Amino acid sequence: YTLSPSEHFTLDVKSSDENRKSLFLVLTRSLDRETIPVHRLVLTASDGGRPSLTGTMELVISVLDANDNAPQFNQSVYKVQLPESAAKGTLVARVNATDPDEGSNKEFSYSILSSIPIGNRELFTIDSKTGEIRLTGTLDFEDVRLHELQIEATDKGTPPLSGHCSVELEVLDVNDNAPEVWVTSLSVPVSEDASVGTVVALLSGASDADIGANAQLSYTLSPSEYFSLDHQGNNDQSESLGLILTKSLDRETIPVHRLVLTASDGGRPSLTGTMELVISVLDANDNAPQFNQSVYKVKVLEGSELGTLLVTLSATDPDEGINSDITY
């Protein structure tokens, strides 16, 4: 007896006598259904005559599937980006795995094993059949800039086998934070005789929780007739702003200046933060007393007694405090 060439099978012939032989087909090498699902062999029996005569039979060996293949993802790492303004239900990614087994051994389901940071698992959900991952919460770039999900695909074989991949979600910044000023209102006293160019106050720059252009700040002052801002213009959030006097003050004309400092970021659209500056002008003794008449003409009888009231003089001083106290 002879068997057609095969890497996986061989014949084992057992003989009790010349006329009776038992044949065994023996497996010599492990099978792989995914490589060769069917083996076709030819068994030949030859007699000892001259010439020899033969008989043949075909052996068709069908390899039954075993769950020896875990689901395999087409990518080990899926890298995706979403803006932090993405709405609930937004598709994050669609993972895809395949299993070369057959039947229930190739049926598998997807699940989210874990997330980094821990505790953000509830932000995402996955369809166990399609592998679609969607948002179930809201993203916040200022809170977490990178989410990593560990995904598992588990088949229904016995025992079940699993494949794994990860999804890295980079959250993109959206201009959702307005510049924040340290105080909303500030009172600053300034003497009215302060010279032009005097630094009236040093103000802390605003801060912005966004990044990039969304956090690049510029400043404006309104009204700007008497005061201006002195800063380097490098958009450094830690910079100090100098409030500079650009025009001489006059308390008697404008005793209080109310200014609005606006910080604007570079986002589109731009967001702003505002701060009120109340500049109280302190009095300087810059006004002399003024009589209500420059000349008083008085007539008096020559016989008037001592102590007779001749005239009442009156002067005023527009300054305040001791600067307006008048002695004659």
Describe this structure in words.
The model has no long low-confidence stretch (mean pLDDT 91). The protein has 328 residues and is an all-beta fold. The chain contains no helices and 23 strands. Strand 11 and strand 12 (132-135) form a beta hairpin. Strands 7-14-13-10 form a 4-stranded mixed sheet, with no helix packed on it. The radius of gyration is 48 Å and the shape is rod-shaped. InterPro entries: Cadherin-like_dom (IPR002126), Cadherin-like_sf (IPR015919), Cadherin_CS (IPR020894), Protocadherin/Cadherin-CA (IPR050174).
Summarize the model shown.
By secondary structure, this protein is mainly β. The protein has strands at 2-3, 9-17, 20-27, 38-46, 54-62, 72-73, 77-83, 91-94, 97-98, 108-116, 124-126, 132-135, 146-155, 162-172, 185-191, 199-204, 218-222, 227-230, 240-245, 256-264, 272-282, 290-291, 315-316.
N/C terminus separation: 148 Å
Say which CATH homologous superfamily of the largest domain is assigned.
Cadherins
**Element-level helix/strand string:** EEEEEEEEEEEEEEEEEEEEEEE
Q: How many beta-strand elements?
A: 23
CATH architecture of the largest domain, please? Sandwich
User: What is the residue-mean pLDDT, rounded to a whole number?
Assistant: 91
By DSSP (H or I, 4+ residues per run), the number of helices equals 0
Strand content: 35-45%
Main β-sheet: number of strands, strand sense, barrel status?
4 strands, mixed
CATH top level class name of the largest domain:
Mainly Beta
Share of helical residues: under 10%
Overall 3D geometry? rod-shaped
The structural class is mainly beta
Q: How many separate domains? A: 3
Keywords: Calcium, Cell adhesion, Cell membrane, Glycoprotein, Membrane, Repeat, Signal, Transmembrane, Transmembrane helix
Main location: membrane
Protein name: PCDA1 protein
Membrane topology: Single-pass type I membrane protein
